[in-house]
Design a protein that fits this description.
The complex is a heterodimer of chains A (408) and B (272). With 408 residues, chain A is of the alpha/beta class. Helices cover 44% and strands 11% of the residues of chain A. Chain A has a seven-stranded parallel sheet, with helices on both faces. Chain A has a two-stranded antiparallel sheet with strand order 1-6. Chain B is an alpha+beta fold and 272 residues long. Classes of the chains: A alpha/beta (408), B alpha+beta (272).
C-alpha cells in the first residue's frame, strides 16, 4: 500500500477487515459507530483487527495511532491515511515481509468448556449447508468458485434423464446438493423428516426454477418409511441413478453427557438407515444398469473434535459401510463413495456448542482460513456422480481445507 | 485462596484491593441504582451494552460500600480479595446508597473514577467485561488494573502483531512444560497487557495499538499457570505472582492475581 491510497480505499479495506475478524455483516459496520459502545467490539477483537492492519500495511511498531482515533472504523482509517501519507516508503523487503511462521500450533489438548445444552443434530451433523450469504469473510472466493463451475455446466444439463434421491435435503447441505443436482438436469427426490415444510419448499423452489423435483416425507431411521419412500420412487420413475445419503441425526455433546438413547438414535439414522436405504437404492439402480451412491462422513471421525465423540464414531461406521457396499454393489455397476467434508458454514454449524470459539479455531487451522461452503461439497459430489468418473469406489474423500493435516 | 463469602456483614479486613464478579442481567432494579449522570450515559449505549454497563457500576459501587462499612482498624491485605456477587448480595445496600456512589469517566480520559456524594474519591476503579461476566476492582492507594477474557484461539496475525519475541518464547516454553494450550497462554498475556493499560502501570501503553511495545514477563512457575488453567471457574482459586512489565520507559515490577478456568481468565495487576 502506498501513500497514494485514498481515504475511501482505506475505509473500505478497514471495514472489510473488521467484517472478516468480527464476522459482522459489513453493512452494519458504520464508519462513525463507536466500536465498543455501539458495535460491541471489545478490545481484544480490536487487537486482532489492528494486528491484521499492521501486516496488511507493513506498519512498524513505532507507528503512532492516537487512542482517540481507535474508537471508530472511520477514525482508524483516517489515522492510517495520515500515517501512510507522511511515512517514508519502506524498503521492499520490509514493506512486504515474508509471512512469518505461526507462533506455534494449538496443541492437541482442546480448550474445554462447561457442559452446554445438548443440541439435537439433524441433517448431516457436521456438514450442514450454508445460508445463501455466508457470514464470514470468504464468501467471495467460494462464490467465485461456484460461479465458475455453475456457469459452465448447468446449461449442458449433464444429468438430464437421471433420477437422484437426496435424503435429508430439506435444508442445509442436503438442500444445496438437491438444488445443484437439479440445476444440472437431474430429476431430484427431496426428502425430509423433521423439517418437513422446508423439504416441501425445497422441492417447490426447484420446480419454480424449471427443474423437476418431488418431495417425499419420511425418516431414514424408520424401515417402514424407507420402504414407502423407495416404493414411491419406483412408482414415479421406475428406477434410480443417484442416491446421496445426507440424512443424519445425532447429538453433539461431551461423552459424559451422552446416553444410550443418543447412540441409538445416531446409529439408527446414520448407519442402519443408510444400509436400508442403500439396499433399496441398489435394487432400483440395477433396473437402470447401474448407479452411484454417495455417503457423507466427517474427517472428525479420525481424530478428536470437541463434542463429536458420538458422531465421530458413527461416521467412522458410515465409512466402513461405504467400503463394504462398494465391493458388494460393484457387480451391479454401482459405485459407492464417501465424501468427508470438514465443518460446513451454515445454521447447524452455528448451533454447535461453543461454536464461536470452535469456528474461529477451525478456520485458523485450515490452510485457507475458511471452512467448507455447502456448494464446495455439492460440486464435488456432482463430479463423483458425473458419467466419466468410474474408477472411484469405496473411497473416503476428504475435503477439509487441510484441517486434518494441520490438526483441529 | 478460597473466595470470600459474598456478605458485606463479614467485616473482615479492608483489603487494599478488592474484586467483584457479577453476571450482567436485564434487571430494572439494578438500573435504579445508577445516578442521574450514569443514567444519561446509559441511555447513549446500545441496548446490548447496557446490562454490562450497569453490572460493572453496581459491582464497583458494592465494593466501595463494603469498604465504607468495613472495620478500618483491620490490617490491609496484600492480595486482592475476590467476591462473587449474587443478586441477593447486592441487596445488602439500598438503591439510594448505590446512587450516591458514581462511577464516571475521568475528565481527561483514562479509566473510570469513583465519586461519593459528588466528591472524587482517591480509590482506583477498574472495570472489565467478557461474555456473561462483569468484573470490577477497587483499590485504596495502589495502582490497579484488571482484565477478563475468553481464552479462545485467534488468528496468527494477532499473535505475531501483539506479542513480543520474548512473550512468544515464554508461551512456547510454558506450553511445552505444562501442556496448557497456546491460545490460553496468549490470552493470559493479553490480560496482563490490558491490565497494565487500564491501571496505567507503565507510561508506554496508551491503547491496544501500543501492546507490541510492552513486554510482560510473568515471574511464575509454569505449574502455577497449569493450576490456573485447570481452575473450575473464575473466582474459585486465585494464583499470585510477580510480573515484570517492560516498556519504552523502563521496567516495573507489579503483583498479579489470576483466577481462571479453561476458557476464561481474570487477571488483576496491582502495585501492592
Amino acid at each position: 500500500m502506498t501513500s497514494g491510497t485514498t481515504i475511501d480505499t482505506l475505509l473500505a479495506d478497514v471495514r472489510q477487515i473488521f467484517a472478516e475478524v468480527t464476522r459482522y455483516p459489513a453493512e452494519i459496520l458504520d464508519a462513525g459507530a463507536h466500536l465498543e459502545e455501539d458495535l460491541g467490539i471489545d478490545s481484544v477483537k480490536l487487537g486482532e483487527v489492528l494486528s491484521v492492519l499492521r501486516e496488511r500495511y507493513a506498519l512498524p511498531e513505532a507507528a503512532a495511532l492516537a487512542p482517540e482515533q481507535l474508537q471508530t472504523i472511520g477514525g482508524i482509517a483516517e489515522a492510517l491515511h495520515a500515517y501512510l501519507s507522511t511515512a517514508t516508503p519502506a524498503p521492499a523487503s520490509e514493506a512486504a515481509p515474508a509471512p512469518e511462521a505461526p507462533p506455534a500450533p494449538t496443541p492437541a489438548a482442546p480448550l474445554t468448556s462447561p457442559p452446554p445444552p445438548l443440541p439435537a443434530v439433524q441433517g448431516d451433523g457436521y456438514a450442514e449447508a450454508a445460508p445463501v450469504l455466508p457470514a464470514n469473510g470468504h464468501a467471495s472466493a467460494a462464490n467465485g468458485a461456484a460461479q465458475s463451475f455453475a456457469a459452465l455446466v448447468p446449461e449442458q444439463k449433464p444429468f438430464a434423464g437421471k433420477v437422484a434421491f437426496v435424503s435429508g435435503s430439506g435444508r442445509g447441505l442436503g438442500k444445496d446438493i438437491a438444488e445443484y443436482l437439479a440445476d444440472l438436469g437431474a430429476a431430484v427426490v427431496v426428502n425430509s423428516f423433521h423439517s418437513r415444510q422446508r423439504g416441501i419448499e425445497t422441492a417447490g423452489a426447484i420446480r419454480a426454477r424449471g427443474g423437476e423435483a418431488l418431495h417425499l416425507w419420511g425418516s431414514m431411521a424408520n424401515p417402514e418409511h424407507v420402504d414407502a419412500v423407495f416404493a414411491e420412487i419406483e412408482a414415479r420413475y421406475g428406477g434410480l441413478d443417484f442416491f446421496v445419503s445426507n440424512a443424519s441425526n445425532g447429538m453433539l455433546a461431551r461423552l459424559e453427557d451422552l446416553t444410550a438413547e443418543h447412540w441409538e438414535k445416531a446409529f439408527r439414522t446414520n448407519v442402519v438407515g443408510l444400509h436400508q436405504a442403500a439396499v433399496h437404492a441398489m435394487r432400483l439402480m440395477r433396473k437402470r444398469g447401474g448407479g452411484k451412491i454417495i455417503t457423507l462422513s466427517s474427517p472428525a471421525a479420525h481424530g478428536y473434535v470437541d463434542y463429536f465423540g458420538c458422531m465421530g464414531a458413527v461416521k467412522a461406521a458410515v465409512e466402513s459401510l461405504t467400503r463394504s457396499m462398494a465391493i458388494e454393489f460393484a457387480p451391479y455397476n454401482i459405485q459407492v463413495n464417501c465424501v468427508s467434508p470438514g465443518p460446513v458454514y451454515g445454521e447447524l454449524l452455528n448451533k454447535w456448542p461453543d461454536s464461536e470459539r470452535l469456528i474461529t479455531q477451525w478456520e485458523d487451522n485450515t490452510a485457507y482460513e475458511r471452512l467448507c461452503e455447502a456448494r464446495d461439497v455439492s460440486h464435488f459430489i456432482a463430479y463423483l456422480l458425473s458419467e466419466p468418473v468410474k474408477l472411484f469406489t469405496g473411497s473416503v474423500l476428504v475435503m477439509d481445507g487441510g484441517i486434518s493435516s494441520q490438526g483441529w | 485462596m478460597p473466595i470470600e463469602t459474598p456478605s458485606y456483614r463479614a467485616s473482615g479486613a479492608a483489603a487494599r484491593c478488592a474484586v467483584a464478579l457479577l453476571e450482567p442481567r436485564r434487571e430494572p432494579a439494578w438500573a435504579a441504582c445508577l445516578s442521574a449522570r450514569e443514567q444519561v450515559r446509559l441511555g447513549r449505549l446500545a441496548p446490548a451494552r447496557q446490562p454490562r454497563y450497569i453490572a460493572g457500576r453496581l459491582a464497583a459501587k458494592h465494593l466501595f460500600l463494603r469498604r465504607l462499612g468495613a472495620d478500618g482498624a483491620c490490617a490491609p491485605r496484600a492480595q486482592p480479595v475476590f467476591h462473587a456477587l449474587t443478586p441477593d448480595a447486592l441487596h445488602a445496600f439500598s438503591p439510594w446508597m448505590y446512587r450516591l456512589a458514581e462511577i464516571l469517566p475521568a475528565a481527561a480520559g483514562g479509566g473510570p473514577r469513583l465519586y461519593w456524594c459528588g466528591v472524587l474519591r482517591p480509590e482506583r476503579v477498574s472495570l472489565a467485561h467478557t461474555e456473561g461476566l462483569t468484573c470490577a476492582s477497587l483499590a485504596a492507594g495502589p495502582a490497579l488494573g484488571l482484565d477478563v477474557e475468553q481464552a479462545v484461539p485467534r488468528r496468527d496475525a494477532f499473535y505475531r502483531g501483539t506479542f513480543t519475541e520474548g512473550e512468544r518464547r515464554w508461551v512456547a516454553r510454558s506450553a511445552w512444560a505444562t501442556g496448557v494450550p497456546f491460545a490460553w497462554l496468549y490470552t493470559f498475556l493479553w490480560t496482563l497487557k490490558e491490565a497494565v493499560l487500564k491501571g496505567r502501570l507503565t507510561g508506554g501503553a496508551r491503547s491496544v495499538w501500543d501492546f507490541p511495545r510492552i513486554e510482560t514477563r510473568p515471574l511464575a512457575d509454569p505449574c502455577a499457570m497449569a493450576a490456573a488453567y485447570r481452575g473450575v471457574r473464575v473466582g474459585e482459586a486465585v494464583h499470585a505472582f510477580g510480573v515484570e512489565v517492560c516498556g519504552p520507559q523502563g521496567t516495573a515490577r507489579v503483583a498479579a492475581a489470576v483466577t481462571a478456568s479453561h476458557h476464561r481468565i481474570l487477571t488483576v495487576l496491582h502495585t501492592s
